[in-house]
Design brief:
Elements lengths: L3 E7 L10 H12 L4 E7 L12 E4 L4 H14 L1 H9 L3 E5 L1 H4 L4 E4 L2 E4 L6 E5 L5 E10 L4 E10 L1 E5 L7 E5 L9 E2 L1 E3 L2 E4 L5 H4 L1 H12 L9 H13 L3
Length: 240
């Protein structure tokens, strides 16, 4: 019997302002093209999460008002389940606003949004322009260094705690705070990043690696001529 990738999309109607549903679509396609099963569940405000029912948890970015609602709800109703899921090796992929909520807090002026504390990071809405533009980073997720290309657009500056590992080194663009030369976070199978555009259609090797980590399998390669062309185009846009 073929393996089934069970995906949980967190707050899909609230945290999806950058075409982030494209990430789910790519995960589905990469599974189906290989004969793997794919199941998708959506979990939103007030709903509990079963930490054992899903192999991969995904959350995208949202508007400030929606992100505030999500932050408090996730802290109150989903924090413990997400910790349990990460502890057993489930993949957690959080993009943009979702990435900010992986940490301890997001300070926005007089308001502090709680994070779920899956990783040690904090985000602050500091004075200055938004960090916007094409971005490329070099990341290593267990198959050697590869380039992740995407687009960043964030007003918050994120700072990792001591001992946390960034997702990658910035080749072009701003990164998580525009100063340190790094982007994202990577602890175990928990991955957070500001890169969208959306992320996985531009980097299908990353989608495949997430599936491998979630299912503990090694995937056979696909004919990715079109996908590789999209990746090269994204890298050229980022100047890499």
């Amino acid at each position: 019997m073929a393996a089934i990738l069970r995906v949980c999309s967190l707050y899909p109607e609230l945290m999806n302002i950058y075409a982030d549903r494209g990430n789910i679509a790519v995960l589905r396609a990469r599974c189906e093209w290989r004969g793997l099963g794919f199941e998708l569940a959506g979990v939103s405000l007030g709903a509990a999460v079963d930490p054992d029912a899903h192999d991969l948890f995904y959350m995208g970015g949202g508007q400030d008002r929606d992100q505030a609602l999500v932050a408090r709800d996730m802290f109150d109703t989903k924090r413990d389940a997400l910790h349990a899921a990460a502890a057993r090796g489930a993949v957690v992929l959080a993009v943009c606003g979702g990435y900010q909520l992986l940490g301890s807090s997001y300070v926005m002026g007089d308001e502090t949004l709680p994070g779920v504390g899956l990783v040690d990071l904090r985000t602050i809405r500091e004075p200055g322009p938004r960090l916007i533009g094409n971005c490329a980073i070099e990341a290593d997720l267990g198959r050697g260094g590869r380039v992740i290309a995407g687009f960043e657009n964030h007003g918050g500056r994120t700072y990792l705690g001591d001992g946390e590992e960034p997702l990658g080194r910035v080749l072009s663009g701003h990164g998580y705070n525009g100063r340190d030369g790094f982007e994202g976070v990577h602890r175990g199978n928990v991955i957070g990043t500001y890169l969208h555009g959306p992320l996985l259609p531009k980097n299908v090797w990353l989608a495949d690696r997430l599936i491998e980590l979630a299912l503990d399998v090694e995937l056979a390669p696909l004919d990715d001529a079109m996908e590789d062309a999209a990746h090269r185009s994204a890298r050229r846009a980022a100047g890499v």
